[in-house]
Design goal:
By secondary structure, this protein is an alpha/beta fold. The chain is built from four helices and nine strands. The protein has helices spanning 13-30, 46-55, 106-116, 175-179; strands at 6-11, 36-42, 61-67, 82-84, 94-102, 122-130, 143-147, 153-154, 170-173. The protein starts with 5 loop residues before the first strand and ends with a helix. Bound molecules: inosinic acid and magnesium ion.
Length: 180
Amino acid sequence: MMKDDIAEVLFTQEQLAEIVKEMGKRISKDYEGKNLVMISVLKGSLIFMADLMRAVTIPCSIDFLSVSSYGSGTTTTGEVRILKDLDTSLEGKDLLVVEDILDSGVTLSFLLKNLSARHPESIRLCTLLDKPERRRVAITPDYVGAQVPDKFIVGYGLDYAEKYRNLPYIGVLKPEIYAG
Ligand code: IMP
Ligand code: MG
C-alpha cells in the first residue's frame, strides 16, 4: 500500500480543498476583467490545477507545459529544459504559472524568463507549496497555498520516481524509500 510509505500526513484532502478554495477566491478577485491564462507546469501541478481552475469563478483559459524533472532523484540538478511547450500565444495575456511546489526556485526562475520573452501583459506565480529554506534563486511566489518544511513530500500530484501522484493527500515520504 502507498500509505505504508508515508511517514506523516501534512495536508488531508479536506485541508487541501480549503486551501485551494481560498486561493481560487483571491485569484478570481485579482484577475477580474483581465485575460487570465492559467499555465500548469506538468506533471506535478496537474491535480492542483484541476482543482484550482474550478475554484476560479471568472473566465480563463488554460495551457500546459512540461520541463525536465529531477529524474528519480530528490534534489535538483540545476538544469531546466522545456519538454512540451504551450500551444497558444501569450501576447497580451495575464499569465498565472501554476506549480505544485517551489523548492530551489530554479525551475520557476527559468520559466519566468522564458515566458516573459513572449510578451505577455503580466506574469504571476502560484504555487500550492513553498519550501523557502531550500531556495537557491531569489524568487517570491505571488500566491502560496502553504509553507512546508525541508522534507521530501509526495501526493496530490507530487511524485517520487513517478509514484504517489495519485495519493489524495500530501505526506512526507519515509526517507528509507529513497535512501534505498
Ligand atoms: P525547484 O526548481 O527546485 O524549485 O523544483 C521544483 C520542482 O521540483 C517541483 O515542481 C517538483 O516537481 C519538484 N520537487 C521539489 N521538491 C519536491 C518534493 O518534496 N516532492 C516532490 N517533488 C518535489
Ligand atoms: Mg513540478
